[in-house]
TrEMBL record:
The keyword Oxidoreductase applies. Keywords: Oxidoreductase. This is Sarcosine oxidase subunit alpha. It comes from the Bacteria. It comes from Tepiditoga spiralis. One of its GO terms (molecular function) is 2 iron, 2 sulfur cluster binding.
Length: 100
């Protein structure tokens, strides 16, 4: 879900940015974080807990908790809630810890 209209705030959706999530082409808009783009597309599961193996998603959404760690362009343990999207980037789930 993406907010389309607001009585006070303006949301610019200028440049669409395409990237890959788990091998599928998805999109967001320039200036958004990976998490914001995925969340707007209804994708809320980004990995699993190291011990419980239960689904993980956003928790703090400000880069403090590590709940949203994913592999981005081959780099594990990337906090997607504070990482902006780029054209052609590859985003993958981690199971359960990152590896090189
Ligand atoms: S959701 Fe907490 S660091 Fe990303």
């Amino acid at each position: 879900m993406r907010i389309q209209q607001h009585p006070i705030l303006k949301f610019k959706k200028e440049n669409r940015v395409n990237f890959l999530f788990e091998g599928k082409e998805v999109y967001g808009y320039e200036g958004e974080t990976i998490a914001a783009s995925l969340h707007a597309l209804g994708i809320w599961e980004y990995g699993e807990g190291a011990h419980s193996h239960t689904p993980r998603g956003l928790f703090c959404a400000i880069g403090h908790c590590s709940s949203c760690l994913m592999k981005v362009d081959g780099v594990p343990n990337t906090r997607i809630c504070v990482t902006k999207i780029k054209e052609g980037m590859i985003v993958e789930k981690q199971h359960p810890r990152g590896s090189l």
